[in-house]
Fold these 2 entries.
Entry 1:
Amino acid sequence: MSRVYDRVAYIGLGLIASSMIHAGRRAGLQGEIVGTARSAETRAIAAEDGLCDVVTETAAEAVKDADLVVLCVPVGAMGAVAEEIGPHLKPGCTVSDVGSVKRAVIEAVKPHLPEGVHFIPAHPLAGTEHSGPRSGFAELFENRYTLIVPEGDTDPQALARLERFWAGMGAHVELMEPEHHDLVLMVTSHAPHLIAYTMVGVADDLRRVTDSEVIKYSAAGFRDFTRIAASDPTMWRDVFLNNREATMEILGRFIEELMRLQRAIRKGDGDLLHEYFTRTRAIRRGIIQAGQDTSAPDFGRGHGQGQSKG
Amino acid sequence: MSRVYDRVAYIGLGLIASSMIHAGRRAGLQGEIVGTARSAETRAIAAEDGLCDVVTETAAEAVKDADLVVLCVPVGAMGAVAEEIGPHLKPGCTVSDVGSVKRAVIEAVKPHLPEGVHFIPAHPLAGTEHSGPRSGFAELFENRYTLIVPEGDTDPQALARLERFWAGMGAHVELMEPEHHDLVLMVTSHAPHLIAYTMVGVADDLRRVTDSEVIKYSAAGFRDFTRIAASDPTMWRDVFLNNREATMEILGRFIEELMRLQRAIRKGDGDLLHEYFTRTRAIRRGIIQAGQDTSAPDFGRGHGQGQSKG
């Protein structure tokens, strides 16, 4: 794999940025790696671990002479960062981001970027429930989709270069419109997160079941919700506040549907329930066939694989 | 490990029964294994694979001379099976089950059992999204809880024997009251399942996002819901119909809580969201500390473990 950018600046050094650094370094995609973070502790860790070649105090310093600048801060902080770095960007450089919503990021960032800078938003669909500069690993993007979301007139060469960068880290790269991105992600990621947060919150609130019982007996179902609900609070707060309309729409649909099932249970309508649960099972099969999950029982959590015979 | 029961009859040969057979055989806990299932295909598979030593056509035949009878049929079928086997049970034998709700099973089964038979309900908190006689494996119960739910006067010796049987299969055995069991399981398992089913159903319904998009981009969050929502439809239909009151209560709470978060999003109340998401993260840490899940990122789904340095 050959070098794609001579100098890459990462603003924010959490799970995604540190994974990009590891993945890009492994594949030789980037020359010098510059990084910065708002927290002094994060900057100290990045320097101590050798995560970046250069750690700067400010974003303005970090972007100097960078060919690619990647904004890896929570969605709500993107606008302020763009305002800070705007005057210091190298003409002809590319600015990208990894935010989970795109329309709001475009509106916050674009006005601050000078002419001659290529702004190409992106979103890697990968993550874990961990965060921070030590949570990243080179394999995070492998066999996962990264959506590149060009907006307005985008220079084809700058776009092709960013695509090469992401493909080099192991991602399947696809292009998508900002509005459609925000809707697809609402369904596949944001709403499930909000619902998992709610379920875990309800369990915690229910005084007649102790916390220790919830924790001990979580194996069947609840455990998977808690993983989702353990994701970074700041990131998710910003996602919901910045994709408000789509959130409202799908929550409305969800509550409506939940009430339909609730009514079926109250009326004892077993046929409706059985038909419903059979349909959702088919969707699962589609995901396994698409290679986006394992069919190993229980995610292969240390059980035997498949059946032992006899 | 020494033999606990000379002859064990399994009524129903799905994931749980076949796992009990493998686990019990591996540990030498059971002598002769008799099994039956309503479906002729399941019986043929059980005979062909040597899953059981004897496969019978009917439950009445299967329980003859059995020291332990385990009802492994959906909760809604328990009453009819109990009625069928009642007259054929060996005096002094133990009848148990593996149903996910306990009060409804006790009410359905108990009236059909003769004097001198020990009825001791149980519920192993273990499972995968797979089902059928070939889905079982010996390790399913290891390091998982099995709740034994004695009701009324229970013979201490018969109880101790059943505890020994489950512990021999690797389970942590605990005792619990039927009503409390049904409430705890509602929170930790039943409600999460219903909610996952609903979420997957809503996604499927939403016409502006294609099914293939939902499937392709499912990695972040939605994927975990589909696993839960792929569980056996008949089993889950019966669970909800037989634990109706607790289901109604928790769904009410859930909808209320969801509306609170919805309102916070609409009003842009970032502090409330951040506080909420921080609290749920702490619950996750408790589950990992209790040894009921792995802290490996993303369940250790084929990513690198932890961070690769430098």
Entry 2:
Amino acid sequence: MAYAAAQATIGDSEFDRDTAVVPRPGEPGVYDADLSAGWTIIQAVNGGYLLGVIGRALQQALPHPDPFTVTAHYLTASQPGPATIRTETVRAGRTLSTGQASLFQTDAEGREVERMRVMAAYGDLDALPDDVRTTAAVPPIPPYEECFGADAAPAGGGAIAGSTAIIQRLDLRLDPATAGWAVGAPSGKGDMRGWLGLADGRDHDPLSLLLTVDALPPTAFDLGIKGWVPTVELTVHIRCRPAPGPLRVAITTRNLAGGFLEEDAQVWDSEDRLVAQSRQLARALLS
Amino acid sequence: MAYAAAQATIGDSEFDRDTAVVPRPGEPGVYDADLSAGWTIIQAVNGGYLLGVIGRALQQALPHPDPFTVTAHYLTASQPGPATIRTETVRAGRTLSTGQASLFQTDAEGREVERMRVMAAYGDLDALPDDVRTTAAVPPIPPYEECFGADAAPAGGGAIAGSTAIIQRLDLRLDPATAGWAVGAPSGKGDMRGWLGLADGRDHDPLSLLLTVDALPPTAFDLGIKGWVPTVELTVHIRCRPAPGPLRVAITTRNLAGGFLEEDAQVWDSEDRLVAQSRQLARALLS
């Protein structure tokens, strides 16, 4: 199995370096970051990667370490390059703390433009009791070896890789049942499923879970829609610290109406635990 | 059919009066409200009603009329009585505008305390194209006449009504399959379904849809959990203007883990359209 070949660790990996934030001296709650061109789709910085950056700033600003629920509104398109994150501690409770953060970049005219705004509650996943009562079932994804990577068969692989730099950072293997769009045969169901690791072998943690819910191709591709599908709002719940190994991610769209659609993601770890749930509202800009 | 007996209209109803906000002269974006004791559960002001109040303030503050996606973080428990809502227009775009709002109340020591904070995107539902591609199916709820209201059989009805004032404002009829908890026999599945109108006969609109996603008894009751289930964060997407008549609401919890659970709600109108979707993260405080 290709996964596990590389050896990056949590704290020393591409994801950690590219989501690093530096507290600005003398300005409490303000962090500087450098958005990497390595996590782009065509020219757009991936929304899940942005969540990782802003999530790390909130992790430093708030008294609790782990994102429990994070909501992002994407306001303008982020560009690779310098960014400033301004955080606010809204409430610091015993079990949970609530924070807000905005990510800004400077435009060509030198004006500070807000790219995204986030509200979040942070807690301590390791402090939670172990009890689980779930009726959620692991999504039906074939074994890792039977799924399609960007290095797979020419037609499918090429289309999946496209011109997106982020593919080089991910170990993404799509369920063949949801990869038909890559060869011009979408299923029409609005599903996208696959295995998702990080290319350098770093295991997942709560911060990289923020990335995983918005890192697969859009479900719209499986509906046969080829245009851009920008996220309006995305909310992710982190329910459990993920065990080592690649994750399984399943995303579904049930309702495309009036030019908007929801994408519901569930993320499962190698011990068959539901570690994250997310829903986003996106626009379908038909091409 | 009991529904349709009363004749309140959108704009002239209990919900409209109780969610009214008054712009504060000389302070743009600031609104005064009076939280009604009529929408409480025991002593707590219902979170869905609060969304209606703050949603109305954002409707007045933003250039677009309809909530498309609204996220609320509940910070401290709201009390019936005066409240101040401070709004901010984050971004005003052509199709969507983004806003933020906080609801404050004054505590016994005269300090202003933030009760909840909301981020939202507003648009114009009537400006959307009519296209719908959906695989979502109407939830299996028996006819209105076969569901249980607060005036139903003594045991069930009494337990449903409890000491909650909000029951008087709602025309809530629970699916018998999810009402077993009221007679000490919860199904254990984590489901809650029913018909939901407003008691005075007012039809639903996008603002009252904000109420509907948090107005049924908690799914935790159907899991046999009797304690308080406070909402940490709730996000609702309004997908369509609802047709006249009572709505069908179906809420499910799949994953109770570490003392937290999600509640996923879907709301369907009388023309079988999916008009709202929501998910909240709540804490299960076991009693």
